[in-house]
Amino acid sequence: MTSSQSETPIVTRFAPSPTGFLHIGGARTALFNWLYARARGGKFVLRIEDTDRARSTPEATQAILDGLTWLGLDWDGDAISQFERADRHAEVAHTMLAQGTAYKCFASQDEIAAFRDAAKAEGRSTLYLSPWRDVPEAEHPDAPYVVRLKAPRDGETRVNDAVQGTVVVQNAQLDDMILLRSDGTPTYMLAVVVDDHDMGVTHVIRGDDHLNNASRQEQIYAAMGWSVPVWAHIPLIHGADGKKLSKRHGALGIEDYAAMGYPAAALRNYLARLGWSHGDDEIFTDAQALEWFDLDGIGKAPARLDLKKLEHTSGQHIAMMTDDEAMAAVDAYRSLEPVEEFSATQRQTLQRAMYCLKPSARTIPQLIEKAEFALTSRPITPDAKAAKALDAVSRGILIELTPHLQTASWSRDALEEAFGIITDAHGIGFGKLAGPLRAVLAGRSVTPSVYDMMLVLGRDETLARINDASAET
């Protein structure tokens, strides 16, 4: 990189087509662009490539914006509509016509098809070579035409890619691509280059399915005398079976992962590791990702989506959260669907319980499930499995336990001592006492530890729940 390049402010972009949800692969592309720009004090801009009017919808555009917002990827300025810039794209095509780097082609679709059929029959290249390439303006008919790039016929086009290395394409293998259709609308190839140039994009970080486009786009940059951005074509995401990611592999949209309860920070961490690495580091914060991320850490091989790894990453991030962050994550998850708000008492109890909920939860729904004891209210009705632990003998033991709990100092040590008195007296292990306590405190057989539940609920609520169960016949 030259000194002049290094002084140029970094600008990256994410340019999705609004034909559906924010795909997991698109989210990772956006994340890589966001990390690269934000870490270098640059700009991350958003362009909606909505030129396919039949498939582009406002709802899909909003889904993309919502997905990026949920993922925590902010962009600079307003999102730009590619469709609304069609006049600018056409203006550049006409500039190229005036400069002689593009030309009008009057060949019909039938003529092009006939050329290709004949070339195929004769074993020649079917690459279309327009006969209108060098025809002077004075000899042009009054007929519909397309505008084609006057691409170099000799030599080669070299794409210096920060991920894939140098990719060389012989110019003889590239045709004079269409820039403007016969109805005057721009093609994707032209629109992308013009938009990237006008938006000041310095680094094009995108999927390697666009790598073949780069050589063609380089020729447009050259024809206009524009600086070429740094190319970085990243490997696609495959399923666990090594095949291109599709619906058969499960959830594809960011909103699906949000609905499954993965915290945004965990998904950012996981997506960053799909195709990029920093040594052996697997779990890291946003600050570390911003410090470490660079293009030379991106591999060439396709990454594989592994939901078990995502769950592990999610669990690690939940465990690292402060109690306030965990509460915010619960609120964010519950806001996705209309649910009844927590009462003030529920919020306070849940906040106290976070220390014993976070370490074992891998998703936010799991955390909420484990928090049921803190969110439910008396009377507690045990489920069928938990109820099996509540027989006459166990109820009698709970009655014996009550006075010891009434005088305990309500610390873990004191509770252990109270339980020890009862278990020793009956010659039973703690497990025989824990089952009934889980049933009366939470109504379930799988819960956080009995000690933690009692400490979270406090003496009065704990005794009230035990007394409710002890009083039943």
From TrEMBL:
Quickly give the catalysed reaction: tRNA(Glu) + L-glutamate + ATP = L-glutamyl-tRNA(Glu) + AMP + diphosphate
Primary location recorded for the protein, binned into one broad class: cytoplasm
Instruction: Please name the PROSITE patterns in this protein's record.
Output: AA_TRNA_LIGASE_I (PS00178)
Q: Where can the motif 'KMSKS' region be found? A: 244-248
Q: Where in the cell is it found?
A: Cytoplasm
- Aminoacyl-tRNA synthetase class I anticodon-binding domain location is 339-469
Q: Which residues form the Glutamyl/glutaminyl-tRNA synthetase class Ib catalytic domain?
A: 10-311
Q: Which GO terms describe its biological process?
A: glutamyl-tRNA aminoacylation
Q: What is this protein called?
A: Glutamate--tRNA ligase
Organism of provenance: Thalassobacter stenotrophicus
Q: Taxonomic lineage per UniProt?
A: Bacteria, Pseudomonadati, Pseudomonadota, Alphaproteobacteria, Rhodobacterales
